[in-house]
Amino acid sequence: MNQLQDKAPYNRRRFLMNTGRGVLAASVLGQMAGCASNAQQNNGLPATTTDTVPVKLAPIDHPSEKPKSPPPAPMNPEKRIGYALVGLGHLTLDELLPAFGECKYSKPVALVSGDAAKAAKVAQQYGIKPQNIYNYQNYDTIKNNPEVDVVYIVLPNSMHEEFTVRAAAAGKHVLCEKPMATSPAEAQRMIDACKKANKKLMIAYRIQYEPNNRQVMKWARERKWGKVKVLEMYNGQNQGDPNQWRQKKALAGGGSLPDIGLYCLNTARFITGEEPEWVSANIYSDTADPRFKEVEDTVLFQMGFPSGTVVNAGSSYSVHNTKRYRCLADNGGWFGMDPAFTYSGLKMEVSEVREGKEYKESPSIDEKNQFALEIDHMSQCILNNQQPYTPGEEGLQDHKIMEAIYRSAKERKVITLDKITKLDAFRGTPPKQDA
Ligand code: NAD
After folding, report:
1. For 185, 238, 313, 344, which has the most beta carbons within 10 A of its beta carbon?
2. Phi and psi based region of residue 356 (left: phi greater than 0; alpha: psi -120 to 50; beta: remaining)
3. What pLDDT digit, counting tens, does each position of 72-104 carry?
4. Cβ distance 380 to 50 under 8 Å?
5. Exactly one of 263, 317, 325, 389 is catalytic; which is it?
């Protein structure tokens, strides 16, 4: 039995594999089901590998106060899913490695970097063994390291394909940063490589795991204030160094659209659950600005969904931070988030009419580390053998739509896309926090 099977919960399939088939199996399975249902009473110990049971603390607030989440109930570190982080840049060092401290099912066990001195320093900080440091050349030997279950790819966009394909060939699952790649063809090859190796591929769309954004998604889908007719969205920031990889077409694949406009595109698809049937776009860049010699600055795009909801969205690389959206509904309310796409400090906004008065409110729910939630979702999918909520197919669909957005701007016409009427057409198992 390999190490991953070892970490999988003791489910029906594994039981049958281990014991053979037949009457004996059926009778013992019945007993197992009984054991599992009794497990919550089993001195509070978990029923399966992924059930972690929080310690109960006596409440100290008045019942009218906002309820608090129970204390975290992490899995024993020995049993957690092990990650190798590839690329030790801003996202890995500022957000991902610290986020593992808030993970319940995941731990960092290896690093892959082109800078041996930096990797040694980081390994020291996070208790990663020196023998678990790899470089881009010997990366493939990670296949011999049973501590690594997942490779998390945090490199410039054009490198995602190569490092995904090599990870899959090494027998590892892949969590890959957004944008998934730089074209639909690359995204498709990444999906194919992971399928061939029978490994999971998840794209790190953190917003889809973040509780405030999930609340907005639920309000939209349950039509709390009627049907969302218009989704208004913007993601803008002011880029610095014109020589960074994000300003180079070969490494980034594009400018503001694949980097930050993608948040508008992916979140619109997530909130509605729908796929656009047309897109229309315009691009504006000052090519005298050295930042926009190779990649675009501002992209303004519109999309139409099968239900009739329309999206008015945009992204810029030359404006002060603006990361928000608003769902305009047809029955006495609008709702959204400002900011919506930042790492922390997210705020919901609601405007509604009650008893003839207009209320503007900022409801809030407990903020959680988005990266920890997203990483733990990947681990739970491995432990329970489920398809991630945001698999490679979700990333591929965004690349197809972005390609149509670029085409629309270039050809100055509306582009029609394949009609997809199924809701959540490309998503897998929803995150556990909603269960
Ligand atoms: P970064 O520039 O800070 O780090 C990139 C790392 O890749 C560095 O360690 C660098 O040394 C290494 N690298 C290897 N080959 C390189 C090359 N040829 N050119 C440049 N760097 C090279 O970038 P980052 O901000 O950490 O972004 C990495 C990935 O993460 C990107 O795909 C980006 O879109 C994504 N990202 C996602 C989020 C999010 O919120 N999910 C946020 C930031 C970045």
Report:
1. 313
2. left
3. 899 999 999 999 999 999 999 999 999 999 999
4. yes
5. 263
Catalytic residue status for 178: yes
What's the gap in Å between 146 CA and the centre of ligand 1?
26
Whole-angstrom CA distances from 127 to 34, 76, 87, 403 are 41, 16, 17, 42
Q: Does the beta carbon of 204 lie inside 6 Å of ligand 1?
A: yes
Residue 38 identity (one-letter amino acid): N
Q: How far is the CA of 106 from the centre of ligand 1 (A)?
A: 21
- Residues 1 and 303: their CA atoms lie apart, in Å, by 49
Rounded Cα distance between 238 and 216, Å, is: 27
> Order of strands, edge to edge, in the sheet holding 278-284?
357-361, 348-354, 333-337, 318-329, 228-238, 310-316, 298-304, 278-284, 415-416
Per-residue model confidence as pLDDT tens digits over 225-261: 999 999 999 999 999 999 999 999 999 999 999 999 9
Return the number of other C-beta atoms located less than 10 Å from residue 104's C-beta: 17
Claim: this prediction has a pTM higher than 0.70: yes
Q: State how far the Cα of 88 lies from the Cα of 154, in Å rounded to an integer.
A: 8
- Spatial contact of 296 and 285, defined as CB atoms under 8 Å apart: yes
CB distance 344 to ligand 1 below 6 Å:
no
CA–CA gap between residue 325 and residue 338 (Å, rounded)? 7
180 within ligand 1 shell (Cβ under 6 A): no
Tokens coding 435: 């269960």
